[in-house]
Structure formats: structure tokens, C-alpha cells
């Protein structure tokens, strides 16, 4: 009896499960070396530490962001205990059905980083956590991997290890699901990372449509679709985390993408299930590369041809990428002079720019070309933009918004808070069917204090775009301000 082929999301989950390798036992404890103290910022609590060898320790934490204890492996440089210097930090993320032990047990990370002046942090990303705060069908709550990793773990590591706690000296890399994690974290928090690398990563969750990687949530003790909901109903939530949709946010980072095509013939033993998985992520990685190229964002892209979804390739990927990370740490990429950042959340921050949008439904908004001289804001409803601290505290600056000029006084930190009208809020989430998203763009000009008034800007105009059949063209629903003519 012939069974129908499973839908794409279940097919991929099954492939990843078959391709996953067994986790080797943990290394026995050795003599204790330099350890962090048993305290931490916020809700993150260090429960225990285990010194596995002079360089490698395993930390166990508890946090309300997760339903149970979670562990992190940390590799320090060989001279860490005898030196007072600070080091850059590289975060390595596990793939689906893996954990914090993978990069040291199967990825040979300890040997590959021997002699390198870098602290390597390997957190657990869950069996299928997908480096996101799960929607849980609108209920929220744990697991909240993004909250844990970004808001809790990174500050804790910076507070308890001698890291250089700056964007340029912090990098992130991952394999498969972890490759998605590296790029979604970098795209959603580009002011935290100077370099991001994806090895066989899921970099475009729209391809094929409703591919549904997080549907494997049963392995994390939850229902399928609990992460972002059904793609057909909650597409904007998927796209809010998709590196392809957020690619513009990656401008100014050093980016690395490595992938095989899933065919036999590579230098390592071939597994058919792993080959099928690699063929899928190869298409996604290629989509991402093409997207970056179209935006004029440079990256290292290596399509190495035949090869499957397995550890020998990811070890080689890390080996090839480590010199690129170290070069980036030595000569960090500067923050962009003009910030453009897209998000679907109603509140977000990047490079010191804080945006809060008052609206009715979830949709993308974009802070575009933001400099001390002004910016544009695209979306619907109304926005409040708080600038970085680059102005004279207490000074009043002429600000032109939608054809009128206002005086805005910098606060004690030197930040301006500017109210930005957009247009009537859309009633339905973006990409909902049937929905027409109306995007308004308002230009804001900021003149020097006590200087000449800024140039007048025109009121926002609406561009009405109906959801199209092609997912690729529908992504153009959020148009640049130049298309509006402001």
C-alpha cells in the first residue's frame, strides 16, 4: 500500500532526525581551573559548574525563560588563568536534536581553537528550539530561547568572563538549525555581533512555503507549530525571524555561508538522509546568498558541491571560518554610519535607536537611513523614535516632521524623543489572507541646535499592496522611502 508523501515540514523534521548523530558521553571532570562566581544578572541563576579539563567547563543555569535547567559549555584560551587580558567571544550554536555538548564532542571545537585567543561559548538551543521565543499559540511563555541567549546569557558571560564586550569582538556561528540561529540573532540584534556564520543553515523559512522547521517541537515537549503557529495563518510571525526577510539588517556585518548540495561524491562518507537534508538547506542558503547580493551586502559564500548534512563537513566549515572570525576580531567592522533596521515587533532597538509603534496588527516597520541629521520611518499607525545619545543635553533641536517643524529638547543623556505620525493602522496582520497592507513613510529631519531650520518634509503617503501569490514578490510589501517620494 502506497502512503502519501508527508508535507514539507514533516519531511524535513524526519530528515533532520535521521541525520542527527548520537551524543557521546560527557568528559569526566578534571582539576578545577578559573571558574565564574555563582551569581548573575537578572533572572539567570548559575546552579553549578563542572570543570571538564583545564580549558573546558560546563555551567548549568536556571531561568524562567526555560522550563528546566539548561547547560552551557565554555572554552577559554590556554593562557586564561595566567593572563589578565580580555578576549573576543565566539558563540557556537547546536543544530536540531543536538545540545551544548555537540561542538566539543562531535565538532572538535576544543582542538580547532587550541592556541587561539578567543572564548568559545556553546549554549543549548534545544532539540528544536529554533532560537526563538515561542508563540505557544498566542499564550507566550517558555521556552524563550532568544530571551535567554540574548538578554540573559550574553550579559552573564560578559560579566563573569574576561570578554571584550563589544559588537566587533563578538561573533556567532551555528550548524543547520544553529545556522538559522546565528543569522536570525545577527539580523534581529546586529548591534551585538560583528560576524555571523551559517554552516548548512536554514536561512529562508519561506522556501519551500510553510517548510515548518519548528514543527518538530514535540521533541521539546510541546505541540507542533507552537513556535510560530501555522505558516498560512501566522506568516508575519515566521517572517519576523527569517534571515531572508531581515537581510537588510545584516548590512555592516561580516557574513559567512557554507553549504553543500546534498549529492554524493564529497570527501566524507555519504548518508542519504543527510543528503536529502543538505539539499533542502542548500536551496535556502543559496536564496540567502542571492538576497544579500541583490542588496549589495558582501558575504563569504562557499557552495562546496557534493556533501551531506553531517559533522565532518561542519568541522571543516569551522576550520575554514575560524581564521575569518579571528581576522574580524582583530579588525572589527564599524557600525553603519546610517542605520536601517526592519522588525515586526511593536518595539525594537538597534545601534542605540529605539522605536515603539502604536498600531492594531503585527506587520513590518522600518527605521531607514537613520543618522544624527534625521531618518525615515515606514509602517502604519504612529511611532515614537528615541535617538542615540549624540546631542547636547538640554539643547533644543528643530525637527521637521511631515511638513511642520517642532522644537525637541535632548534629555539628560543627549537623546531626542520624536513622535512620528504614519497613517491609519492596518486592521489585519501583514500577509494575512485576504489582507491589503498599507505602508506609510514619514521623513524626519533634525537640524543643529540654534541653527537654520531643517528642510521641510512632505506628509506620509500610502502604498497599498495586496498579498501576491509569489512569496518572493510579496516580500516587497515594505517599500523603501524612495518609492513613496518623501
Secondary-structure blueprint of this entry?
Blueprint: H1 8-19, E1 45-51, E2 56-62, E3 70-75, E4 89-93, H2 102-105, H3 109-112, E5 119-123, H4 145-160, E6 170-175, H5 177-188, E7 195-199, H6 235-239, E8 254-259, H7 272-295, E9 300-303, H8 311-330, E10 339-343, E11 347-350, E12 353-358, E13 365-371, E14 374-379, E15 381-386, E16 396-401, E17 404-409, E18 417-423, E19 436-446, E20 461-466, H9 471-474, H10 481-484
What characteristics describe this protein?
disordered N terminus, 20 strands, 22% helix, 10 helices, 7-stranded antiparallel sheet, disordered C terminus, 9-stranded mixed sheet, alpha+beta, 486 residues
Compose a concise summary of this entry.
The chain is of the alpha+beta class.
How would you explain this protein's 3D organization?
The chain is α+β, with helices and mostly antiparallel strands and 486 residues long. Helix content is 22%, strand content 25%. It has helices at residues 8-19, 102-105, 109-112, 145-160, 177-188, 235-239, 272-295, 311-330, 471-474, 481-484; strands spanning 45-51, 56-62, 70-75, 89-93, 119-123, 170-175, 195-199, 254-259, 300-303, 339-343, 347-350, 353-358, 365-371, 374-379, 381-386, 396-401, 404-409, 417-423, 436-446, 461-466. It has a nine-stranded mixed β-sheet with strand order 1-2-3-5-4-6-7-8-9, sandwiched between helices. Strands 10, 13, 14, 16, 17, 19 and 20 form a seven-stranded antiparallel β-sheet that branches. A four-stranded antiparallel β-sheet has the order 11-12-15-18, with no helix packed on it. α6 links the parallel β7 and β8. The longest helix is centred in the middle third of the chain and has 24 residues, at 272-295. The protein is globular, with a radius of gyration of 23 Å. Residues 1-41 and 466-486 have low confidence and may be disordered.
Amino acid at each position: 500500500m502506497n502512503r502519501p508523501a508527508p508535507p514539507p515540514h514533516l519531511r524535513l523534521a524526519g530528515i533532520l532526525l535521521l541525520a542527527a548523530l548520537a551524543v557521546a558521553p560527557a568528559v569526566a571532570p578534571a582539576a578545577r581551573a578559573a571558574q565564574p562566581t555563582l551569581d548573575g544578572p537578572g533572572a539567570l541563576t548559575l546552579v553549578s559548574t563542572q570543570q571538564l579539563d583545564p580549558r573546558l567547563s560546563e555551567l548549568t543555569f536556571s531561568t524562567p525563560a526555560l522550563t528546566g535547567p539548561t547547560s552551557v559549555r565554555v572554552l577559554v584560551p590556554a593562557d586564561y588563568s595566567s593572563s589578565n587580558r580580555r578576549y573576543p567571544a565566539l558563540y557556537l550554536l547546536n543544530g536540531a536534536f543536538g545540545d551544548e555538548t555537540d561542538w566539543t564532542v562531535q565538532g572538535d571545537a576544543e582542538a580547532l581553537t587550541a592556541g587561539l585567543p578567543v572564548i568559545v561559548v556553546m549554549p543549548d538551543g534545544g532539540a528544536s528550539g529554533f532560537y526563538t521565543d515561542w508563540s505557544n499559540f498566542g499564550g507566550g511563555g517558555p521556552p524563550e530561547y532568544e530571551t535567554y541567549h540574548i538578554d540573559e546569557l550574553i550579559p552573564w558571560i560578559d560579566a563573569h568572563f574576561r570578554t571584550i564586550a563589544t559588537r566587533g569582538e563578538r561573533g556567532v556561528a551555528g550548524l543547520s538549525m544553529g545556522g538559522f540561529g546565528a543569522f536570525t540573532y545577527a539580523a534581529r540584534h546586529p548591534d551585538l555581533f560583528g560576524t555571523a556564520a551559517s554552516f548548512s543553515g536554514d536561512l529562508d523559512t519561506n522556501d519551500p512555503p510553510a517548510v515548518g522547521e519548528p514543527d518538530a517541537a514535540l521533541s521539546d515537549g510541546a505541540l507542533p507549530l507552537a513556535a510560530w503557529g501555522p505558516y498560512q495563518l501566522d506568516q508575519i510571525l515566521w517572517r519576523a525571524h527569517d534571515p531572508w526577510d531581515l537581510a537588510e539588517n545584516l548590512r555592516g556585518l561580516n557574513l559567512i555561508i557554507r553549504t553543500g548540495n546534498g549529492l554524493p561524491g564529497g570527501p566524507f562518507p555519504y548518508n542519504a538522509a543527510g543528503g536529502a537534508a543538505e539539499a533542502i538547506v542548500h536551496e535556502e542558503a543559496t536564496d540567502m546568498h542571492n538576497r544579500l547580493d541583490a542588496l549589495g551586502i558582501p558575504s563569504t559564500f562557499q557552495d562546496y558541491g557534493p556533501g551531506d548534512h553531517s559533522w565532518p563537513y561542519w568541522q571543516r566549515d569551522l576550520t575554514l571560518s575560524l581564521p575569518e572570525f579571528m581576522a574580524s576580531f582583530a579588525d572589527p567592522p564599524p557600525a553603519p554610519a546610517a542605520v536601517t533596521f526592519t522588525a515586526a515587533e511593536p518595539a525594537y532597538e538597534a545601534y542605540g535607536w529605539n522605536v515603539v509603534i502604536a498600531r492594531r496588527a503585527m506587520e513590518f516597520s522600518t527605521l531607514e537611513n537613520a543618522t544624527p541629521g534625521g531618518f525615515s520611518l515606514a509602517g502604519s499607525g504612529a511611532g515614537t523614535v528615541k535617538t542615540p545619545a549624540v546631542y547636547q543635553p538640554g539643547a533644543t533641536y528643530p525637527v521637521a516632521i511631515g511638513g511642520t517643524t517642532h522644537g525637541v529638547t535632548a534629555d539628560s543623556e543627549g537623546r531626542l524623543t520624536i513622535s512620528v505620525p504614519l497613517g491609519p493602522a492596518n486592521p489585519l496582520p501583514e500577509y494575512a489572507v485576504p489582507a491589503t497592507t498599507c505602508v506609510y513613510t514619514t521623513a524626519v529631519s533634525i537640524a543643529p541646535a540654534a541653527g537654520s531650520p531643517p528642510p521641510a518634509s512632505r506628509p506620509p503617503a500610502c502604498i497599498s499592496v495586496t498579498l501576491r501569490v509569489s512569496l518572493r514578490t510579496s516580500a516587497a510589501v515594505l517599500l523603501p522611502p524612495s518609492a513613496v517620494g518623501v
